[in-house]
Write a structure and sequence with these properties.
Elements: H1 13-21, H2 29-34, E1 37-42, E2 45-50, H3 65-81, E3 88-99, E4 110-119, E5 123-131, E6 137-149
Antiparallel strand pairs: 1-2, 2-4, 3-6, 4-5, 5-6
């Protein structure tokens, strides 16, 4: 017997994100590719985590900055997603990041938490911070997302 299908288009952004966090909907392919998990979601916020590993190294031997960028962009975008009514989507229009410390394989789990600062009719802004297991700030950023009618 197959599992019932979910009509994602009929769900709010918060409902979709809660189902992904609960494992009732599959994560987006980028999350599976990087080993990124949705740890927590709520109205206007989202937390993502992953463990940096050697597959993510750049030529100078640290984890590529794109991994931090992807984590921050994902949690900020998904924080915006939690505010959307059924039938609405979003896209990142602007992404600003500040890198403070490098990630290394074996450093343990890192977590990025994003929260919505402003949600308008056509755009939203959000901020996020990325921390290591010791509570040190690794990077932070802001985004502007365009709200799209589907």
């Amino acid at each position: 017997m197959s599992a019932p299908t979910v009509d994602v288009a009929s769900l709010s952004g918060l409902e979709v994100m809660q189902l992904i966090a609960a494992g009732e909907l599959p994560p987006p392919p980028i999350a599976a590719l990087l080993g990124m998990d949705v740890e927590e979601v709520g109205d206007g916020f989202a937390t993502f985590g992953l463990e940096p590993d050697a597959r993510m190294l750049n030529p100078i031997g640290s984890v590529h900055g794109g991994i931090a960028a992807t984590l921050l962009d994902s949690c900020m975008g998904c924080a915006v997603h939690t505010t959307l009514a059924p039938g609405l989507g979003y896209t990142t229009a602007q992404l600003n990041l500040h890198y403070l410390r490098a990630m290394q394989p074996g450093m343990g789990r890192v977590r990025a938490t994003g929260s919505v600062l402003h949600r308008g009719r056509k755009q939203a802004t959000a901020e996020a911070k990325l921390y290591d297991d010791a509570g040190r700030l690794l990077a932070h950023g802001t985004t502007t997302c365009l709200i799209l009618g589907l």
